[in-house]
Amino acid sequence: MIEWTTKENVKGLSQEMFCFQCEQTAGGKGCTKMGVCGKDPKVAALQDLLVQQAKGIGYYATRLIEKGKEMDETVGRFVYDIMFTTLTNVNFEDDTLVEWINKAQNLKDSLREELGEEGPQSASFVAPQELSQQVACARSYHVLAGRDALGEDLVSLRELAIYGLKGYAAYGHHAAVLGYRDADCEKAFLKFLAQTLNETLTVNDWVGINLGIGEKNLRVMELLDAANTGSYGNPEPTKVNIHKVKGRFIVISGHDLRDLKMLLEQTKDKGINVYTHGEMLPCHGYPELKKYPHLVGNYGGAWQDQQKEFDGLPGAILMTTNCIQKPRSSYEDRLFTSGVVQMPHCLHIQADAQGNKDFTPVIEKALSLPGFLEDEPKKEILTGFGHKATLSHAGEIVEAVKEGKIRHFFLIGGCDGAKSGRNYFTDFALSVPKDAIILTLACGKYRFNKLDFGTVAGLPRLLDCGQCNDAFSAIKVAGALAEAFDCGINDLPLSMILSWYEQKAVVILLTLLSLNIKNIKLGPSLPAFLSPNVLNVLVENFNIAPITNAQADLQEILG
Ligand code: FSO
Ligand code: SF4
Predict the structure, then answer these.
(1) How far is CA 418 from each of CA 92, 444, 515, rounded to the nearest angstrom?
(2) Which domain range does residue 529 map to?
(3) Which of 229, 392, 440, 517 could disulfide-link 445, Cβ–Cβ 3.0 to 4.6 Å?
(4) From the CA of 482, how far away is ligand 2's center (Å)?
């Protein structure tokens, strides 16, 4: 049982910073002096204030929608972007956060004037324009604000909703970047934000809101799937080089497929190789991205290894989204950011009004560096098992299950991180019986995706469904299998072993719960923002369980 954050057990809780939105939060309770992620109290305060501005925009926009007004489509995109900006390991640049807060204030003012109503103080307050005053103002909108009046369970459920909305915003942002929008999802997002200001809601109301966020997020993930596959084709099973190739290069990290496409176009015939990093690995499966011969491979492991792997790297690096870490001085000059991600001292590539980006500074940096001086021995891994590719084998899979050749499916997916307890996921994957298939997604797979799992019933035993952004693929595969076997997802020989780190994982969890998926095993630790009573609700209704050890959990699952 986790222990909820109290003044007694969290050191420095009464001080100005408090954040417990991610899995690596200090002491498993909350970051109070400096984020383990590198977020300082100033950035933490600005992000709290920005979230509060988003709630205010949500409030006025929702009231206007209720009065029959058609919402300007810039509003939905704006709130997606500001909420995504506050996700873990995304934006550490205080000047930009100040700018976003001021823009949000302008938008809030215009919506309030149009509505002609003041609304609650938590929406109508006017944020100061200058950094130090904004930091002071943010104290009133601390993540635990209202705890004494509301109690820990309501605050826990409110923050669960906020973190779910940050993940929702990330998916909505990615789809919008490719021109895919859904007005209903954007209106629902604004309404969910507005609801977080309501201090009269009960525990049951909040449970409903959280499941509602999960349910709507399924549509947002479907939209993102349509955006990615509609723009770049359906991923195909593809072997990816993981060895270094002689020559100058750019490493591209994050999750943004459009940035990769633009970079590949702009580096054509320039004598520059492009490597994916981290969550960009599944990009090698998309026909419209894999066709570029200078997309030569995948470099390194998951996000938390970047400081070591980028140390003195003889090429340029482009971070398109999370998870960025504070760079060491040995590569700070060659690290570039784009989209909502920003880091002090690193050049940010701005998009124009159409979302096009000029990556010339990244290209020039790559050309000025020596690159890799020799080829490494060839080594490859496999990716590209999105729902289309996996379900093209649905008939064989169903037959193999009926004949007893495939006993079970394990979705071992989610985020990676630095904690030692994460070895569990490698142990688990290695202990899965030889007649079971492992589906994986997100960056947690770097723990085991270079190992050889062989084949079962003519299929690779390890099928990579893609990024965390492709969780929709795994849900679609599970849904199709349930249909083929004429049963519910919970009746399939399928178990979900999920690792979480940041807030995209939170919204994926809410989506799985909204689909009534039970018996999920979650690790490496349970979220600090879940109060004991809220956790009990999840256990009682969905039988969520923390991971224990790989052998014991496997035995329990397989009986
Ligand atoms: Fe990983 Fe980071 Fe994709 Fe997350 S790179 S941890 S769920 O932000 O985004 O899987
Ligand atoms: Fe701490 Fe995570 Fe918040 Fe960073 S995002 S301050 S590591 S809880």
Answers:
(1) 20, 11, 30
(2) 387-558
(3) 440
(4) 38
Output the pTM of the full model.
0.97
141-145, 174-178, 316-320, 354-358: range with lowest mean pLDDT: 141-145
- The ligand 2 atom at the shortest distance from the C-alpha of residue 17 is 6
Closest protein CA for atom 5 of ligand 2: 88
Ligand nearest to the CA of 18: 2
Across 151-155, average pLDDT: 95
Whether 210 and 246 map to the same domain: the answer is: no
Compute, in angstroms, the gap from residue 259 CA to the centroid of ligand 2.
Answer: 27
Residue 19 carries which DSSP code?
Answer: B
Q: For residues 447 and 518, state if they share a domain.
A: yes
**What average pLDDT is seen over the chain?**
96
Structural domains in the chain (count): 3
pLDDT at position 12 over 90: no
Residue nearest to atom 6 of ligand 2 (CA): 35
State which of 22, 415, 440 you would mutate to test the pocket of ligand 1, scoring each by most atoms of that ligand within 8 A of its C-beta.
415
Give the ligand with the smallest distance to the CA of 507: 1
- Please work out whether the CB of residue 90 comes within 6 Å of at least one atom of ligand 1: no
pLDDT tops 80 at residue 164: yes
**Closest by CA position to 522, among listed 543, 540, 537, 504:** 543
Closest by alpha carbon to 231, among 214, 256, 194, 209? 256
* Within a domain: 2: no
Ligand 1 atom nearest 501 alpha carbon? 6
CATH code, 535: 3.40.50.2030
- With a 6 Å cutoff on the Cβ, whether 445 touches ligand 1 is no
Q: Which of 314, 341, 368 is the last residue of a domain?
A: 368
485-534 pLDDT, tens digit per residue, is 999 999 999 999 999 999 999 999 999 999 999 999 999 999 999 999 99
In a domain, 375, yes or no: no
Confidence class for position 7, pLDDT limits 50, 70, 90: low
Q: Which ligand 2 atom is nearest residue 30's CA?
A: 8
Pocket test for ligand 1, best of 341, 502, 510 (most atoms within 8 A of CB): 502
Distance CA 510, CA 505 (A): 9
Query: Hey, is 329 helix, strand or coil?
Result: coil
Query: Same structural domain for residues 55 and 103?
Result: yes
Instruction: Tell whether 4 is covered by a domain.
Output: no
Residues 168 and 296 both lie in one domain: no
> Does residue 378 lie in a domain region?
no
Q: What is the mean pLDDT of residues 374-400?
A: 97
What SS3 class is residue 311? Answer: coil
Task: Please tell me if the CB atom of residue 471 comes closer than 6 angstroms to any atom of ligand 1.
Answer: no
pLDDT tens, 221-247?
Answer: 999 999 999 999 999 999 999 999 999
Cβ 339 vs Cβ 321: under 8 Å: yes
DSSP letters of 165-230? Answer: HHHHHHHHHHHHHTT---HHHHHHHHHHHHHTT-TT--HHHHHHHHHHHHHHHHHHHHHHHHHHHH
Indicate whether 552 and 471 sit together in one domain.
Answer: yes
